[in-house]
Amino acid sequence: MPAALHALVVDDERPVLDELVWLLERDDRIASVRGSDSGTDALRVLEQGGVDVVFLDVAMPGLSGLDIARLLGHFRDAPRIVFVTAHEAHAVEAFEMNAVDYLLKPIREERLRESVRRACADGDHPPASGDDQIAVELAGVTRFVSRASVAHAEAQGDYVRLHVADGGSHLIRTPLGVLADEWADAGFVRIHRSIVVNLAHVREVRVQAGRCSVVVPSSGDTTIELQVARRHTRALRDLIHERAL
Question: If DSSP codes are grouped into helix, strand and coil, which group holds residue 125?
Answer without folding.
Answer: coil
